[in-house]
Design brief:
Elements: H1 15-19, H2 23-32, E1 41-44, E2 47-50, H3 53-74, H4 78-83, H5 86-93, H6 98-108, H7 115-122, H8 138-143, H9 147-164, H10 170-180
Antiparallel strand pairs: 1-2
C-alpha cells in the first residue's frame, strides 16, 4: 500500500474509547459496546479532514476555481490573494440576508451587472441609465455626478455608517468610510 492509500474503515467506538483511545480500551470498545459515535475522516491530497465534511467537500470543489477567477479578474498574484483576511470577510457578511451578500460580493469583486457588460455580452447600449453621458462601468457607479446618483450614494453611505456603528471598532469604521468617500 502506498503512503497515499488509506484503508476505509467502519469502526464502532464507545465513549470510553473516545475519551481514552488506548489499544486495550479499543479492543474492549469493539467487543462490548454498541455504536455511540461515528467519526468521519476525509483524506484528500494527503491532507486529513475531520469535522464538517460537507463544507470541506464544498471548499475542495469550488475554492480553487473561485480563487483563480478572483485573481484573474483583479490581476492579483497568489500573494495579493493571501493578504486578504477571507475569514474576516466571511464573518462580516454572514449576518446579512443572502441577497445582500450576493450584491456585496459582486461589487467587491467587480462582478456587478453593468451596462458596459451588457454591451459586451448582449449588444445593449452601455450608457449610464442615470446620466446617459458615459459608459456605465463599476467605477462609474461610484463616481457618477448626476444629482440623483450622488443623492442615492450619500443615503447609502449614511445607512452603511449607521449599521457599522453598532459593532465596528471606531478606527475600522473611519477607514472604511474614508475609503468609500
Amino acid at each position: 500500500m502506498e503512503d497515499s492509500d488509506y484503508p476505509i474503515q467502519f469502526t464502532p467506538l464507545s465513549l470510553d474509547f473516545i475519551h481514552n483511545p488506548s489499544t486495550r480500551n479499543h479492543a474492549a470498545a469493539l467487543d462490548t459496546t454498541p455504536l455511540l459515535h461515528v467519526i468521519i475522516t476525509l483524506v484528500h491530497d494527503n491532507t486529513v479532514f475531520t469535522g464538517d465534511i460537507k463544507s470541506k467537500i464544498h471548499d475542495l470543489e469550488y475554492c480553487k476555481q473561485l480563487q483563480a477567477k478572483v485573481q484573474k479578474d483583479n490581476h492579483w498574484t497568489d500573494n495579493n490573494f493571501q493578504m486578504v483576511d477571507w475569514d474576516a470577510y466571511h464573518k462580516a457578511i454572514r449576518r446579512l440576508p443572502w441577497s445582500h451578500r450576493i450584491s456585496i460580493m459582486k461589487l467587491s469583486h467587480q462582478l456587478w451587472n453593468t451596462n458596459h457588460q451588457n454591451m459586451k455580452y448582449y449588444g445593449q447600449p452601455e450608457l449610464c441609465p442615470i446620466c446617459t453621458k458615459v459608459s456605465e462601468t463599476t467605477a462609474h457607479i461610484y463616481k457618477c455626478q448626476h444629482p440623483e446618483a450622488t443623492t442615492y450614494r450619500k443615503e447609502a453611505l449614511e445607512s452603511l455608517s449607521a449599521s457599522l456603528k453598532r459593532g465596528t471598532p471606531q478606527l475600522l469604521l473611519e477607514v472604511i468610510l474614508s475609503r468609500l468617500t
